[in-house]
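Thread amino acids onto this structure.
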């Protein structure tokens, strides 16, 4: 079994910065993709940023130029540095990883517990 634990988030004024972190633990063989999604109440969860094992990244158009995703394969962690935050960035942010466990089963998706990010105007 694999667990993802998030940290960071909170309340920040518009224009400010926040850093989110997520650490995976458990029976991990390899992690293919790591990413961050966000969800506003009543809306679908949407991709913020994703980074695959080779280091390639993809960002939502709404955050390009303001957000940087990074991963540490040795520590099984993924971070999201968010700058120039806007009120429309307010949401619950979820960490995501696609993990192959040591049990040999096909890789599967795991999610963090979610953390609230609130940007005040």
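Threaded sequence (121 positions):
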């Amino acid at each position: 079994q694999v667990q993802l634990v998030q940290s960071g988030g909170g309340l920040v004024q518009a224009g400010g910065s926040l850093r989110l972190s997520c650490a995976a633990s458990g029976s991990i063989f390899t992690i293919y993709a790591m990413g961050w999604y966000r969800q506003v109440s009543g809306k679908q969860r949407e991709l913020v940023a994703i980074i695959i094992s080779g280091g390639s990244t993809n960002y939502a158009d709404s955050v390009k130029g303001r957000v940087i995703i990074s991963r540490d394969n040795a520590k099984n962690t993924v971070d999201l540095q968010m700058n120039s935050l806007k009120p429309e960035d307010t949401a619950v942010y979820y960490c995501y990883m696609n993990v192959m466990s040591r049990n040999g089963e096909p890789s599967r998706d795991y999610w963090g517990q979610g953390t609230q990010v609130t940007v005040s105007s």
